[in-house]
Write a structure and sequence with these properties.
Length: 689
């Protein structure tokens, strides 16, 4: 191959339209539930009606008499799964019930309607035990886990935070609460399953076909090459599709039992039980500072929940180890195992709830010290990652705060709460920092030169609505020295070169590196095909701390009679290396910021202690921002040249947009009203006495 890539125009940095945009808007793009096969059957899960106990008996008579019903599957007749299968995926392996809504049986029928009617007619008897579903401070079951996700120490302490707090010129000691949040991607989880010989094929909605293939193969005790997962288009995930969900296992079990292809679609209602959620948190924040605002101690102690099925420990306080310098530090997590579904990955796990607490507390400290909140943050910026002492590959937090202040019009802000008014509306502005790690994971890719002069690039990546397919096309085009129009990128299939999930905001960095290397290997080699495996580079990354940073600004209007909060303006400024595609990047940022608005004002999964479950069951009860809630929302970014990252010089952008937004809005609400609401969401009843 010969080409001169460096002399051609770069595709990276241009606002290329989504490659699959037309397919999506015309309905041609196929999602998991839309794949057809001969002789399709439909499975409908039956969900536990108790929060703890065991199934005593199942009477299938009426269900099996229902026209169209083919089978009822439960513990008595279900295929045996691997002994070490994940508790959330070990469907029908036990009569025990670990939480209300758990899949405990399924009805398979000729049509979805018959399956649902059969499900309605199924008679299940339970031996119910008393349950415990409510997280609270001082819960007797609280314990310190060994690690928090993915592999951080649960507790770290340096110096003498209590001593520093006791002798501080200025301090805050406050507790913030966040409720459970449910991910709710637009496309509910769905799977179409087929067995061919002993091989399993799944059309499934997930965040990474190869990783999901491996996990499903494990559940069925199959070698990975006997399972194929196909997922070219996915309608959002936000973490809830990072690992397989019970629907994928159910479809495969049902297809095995009835020896036909089977579809399973999780309903919006079921999503509140079986597709993951973010743990509620109780976060005690203590900050101590000198009179000039220099932090002397930071203590961040978190209480959160997991299930009895497995431990999932959100890394809520870990971000505090990254943010501000202070000699005396404590970060700690405690968990309670409750009779609830297992919490899971959701939108910047750890950073999102943790930065809500830290950045709200920083605002409270700024008020207590009489210092501008931007100056307070700038004063406590750190040259090195505070906890580890590692240098940053780049850290432009202060640059983002200053640029944001300029764009937002921060100068001259009167910090007095309630000072600005427009009729009955109280107006306030708030700021918060944002951050997210710039991770990278091993990936493989291949590149092939086609006889017609185009290129085919293959990588087991996922585009869950982010624009990943488009970004990878741009990366490949630059590496090949050709136009994006000449590059065809294949993703979303476990048969492609192995790559990690679209998660942890590391997709583009991980897949893009492998794609870049494969394309360069193709150019420098003799053949018409080349492969790359970037696993060896990952270890070297640990020498430096790699994080994106940002600053979130919010303006709010609060109705002084009703407490209604409006958000006329949001601005996020980010320093995240090089932006591959400004159009899709902007969508990522403002999408995250919109979710942050949801977290601040609307989203709340309400646990009923008696009933033993979350009460919300749909988007009428679980509120997310609608178009009318989102007014002016802008994202900007600094040029950041960081050559310690990857060949593209990029940091992840999928999750940083949500981090800090809720704190910025909460801080603006305080500025508008003088009321510090320390429990999300900031509902009007929490603002009005
Ligand atoms: Mo994202 S919550 O890391 O899939």
């Amino acid at each position: 191959m010969t080409a001169t890539p460096d002399t051609l125009a770069r595709a990276i940095g241009t606002p290329l339209d989504r490659i699959e945009g037309r397919e999506k808007v015309t309905g041609a793009a196929k999602y998991a539930y839309e794949y057809q096969a001969e002789n399709m059957a439909y499975a409908e899960p039956v969900q536990a009606q108790i929060a703890k106990g065991a199934i005593r008996s199942v009477d299938t008579t009426e269900t099996l008499a229902q026209p169209g019903v083919i089978a009822v599957i439960w513990n008595e007749n279900a295929p045996k799964l691997a002994d070490d299968a994940d508790g959330e995926l070990a469907l029908f392996q036990s009569r025990r019930v670990a939480y209300r809504g758990q899949y405990v049986a399924a009805v398979v029928a000729e049509t979805p309607e018959a399956a649902r009617e059969g499900q309605r007619l199924l008679r299940m008897e339970y031996d119910e035990e008393s349950h415990d579903v409510l997280l609270r401070e001082g819960h007797p079951k609280l314990y310190t886990p060994e690690k928090v996700n993915p592999n951080f120490p649960a507790e770290l302490e340096r110096g003498d935070p209590d001593g520093a707090l006791a002798s501080a010129a200025v301090s805050v000691d406050v507790t913030y609460r966040t409720p459970a949040f449910h991910n709710n991607p637009m496309e509910p989880h769905a799977t179409t399953a087929l067995w061919q010989g002993g091989d399993l094929i799944l059309y499934d909605s997930n965040q990474g076909a190869p990783a999901n293939r491996d996990a499903i193969a494990g559940v069925f005790d199959l070698p990975p090459e006997r399972v194929r997962v196909i997922s070219p288009h996915v309608g959002g995930g936000f973490g809830s599709k990072g690992t397989p969900r019970p629907n994928a296992v159910l479809a495969a079990i049902a297809a095995k039992v009835v020896e036909r292809p089977v579809k399973v679609a999780v309903t919006r209602q079921q999503m509140f039980a079986v597709t993951g959620y973010r743990t509620p948190t109780i976060q005690r924040m203590r900050l101590a500072a000198d009179a000039d605002g220099t932090l002397t101690a930071i203590s961040h102690e978190v209480v959160e929940q997991t299930s009895t099925l497995k431990e999932f420990a959100e890394q809520t306080a870990v971000v505090t180890r990254v943010m501000y310098a202070a000699p005396n530090r404590r970060t700690a997590h405690k968990l309670a195992r409750l009779d609830v579904p297992t919490p899971s990955w959701m939108r910047a796990p750890g950073e999102c709830p943790g930065m809500y607490a830290l950045e709200s507390a920083m605002d409270e400290l700024a008020v207590a010290a009489g210092i501008d909140p931007i100056e307070l943050r700038a004063r406590n910026d750190s040259e090195v990652e505070p906890e580890s002492g590692r240098p940053f590959s780049s850290r432009n937090l202060v640059g983002c705060l200053r640029e944001g202040a300029e764009r937002f019009g921060w100068a001259g802000r009167d910090p007095t709460p309630g000072a600005r008014r427009d009729g009955k509306w109280l107006i306030g502005t708030g700021v918060a920092s944002s951050t997210y790690p710039a991770y990278r994971r091993a990936a493989q890719a291949s590149a092939r030169a086609e006889p017609d002069g185009t290129f085919t690039v293959r990588v087991g990546a996922a585009d869950i609505g982010t624009g990943a397919r488009t970004a990878l096309t741009q990366i490949a085009a630059d590496a090949l020295g050709t136009s994006p129009a000449n590059v065809h990128v294949e993703i979303g299939d476990s048969a492609l070169p192995k790559a990690g999930v679209a998660g942890g905001s590391m997709g583009t960095a991980s897949w893009g590196t492998a794609v870049h290397r494969a394309c360069r290997a193709l150019l420098s080699g003799d053949g018409n095909e080349a492969e790359a495996d970037t696993s060896d580079e990952i270890e070297q990354q640990k020498k430096l701390a790699r994080h994106g940073f940002g600053a979130q600004f919010a303006e709010v209007r609060v109705d002084s009679d009703s407490g209604e909060v409006r958000v006329p303006r949001l601005l996020g400024v980010f320093a995240v290396g090089r932006i591959i595609n400004p159009k899709t990047a902007r969508s990522q940022f403002i999408g995250g910021m919109t979710m942050g608005m949801g977290m601040a004002l609307f989203e709340e999964s309400v646990m009923d202690a008696e009933f033993g479950d979350y009460l919300n069951r749909d988007l009428a009860q679980y509120h997310v921002p609608a178009c009318a809630d989102v007014h002016e929302i802008e994202a900007a970014w600094l040029d950041e040249d960081d050559d310690e990252l990857n060949p593209m010089g990029s940091k992840g952008i999928g999750e940083i947009g949500i981090v800090g937004t809720a704190a910025a809005i909460g801080n603006a609400v305080y500025h508008a009203t003088g009321k510090r609401v320390r429990e999300l969401p900031i509902r009007l009843d929490r603002l009005i006495d």
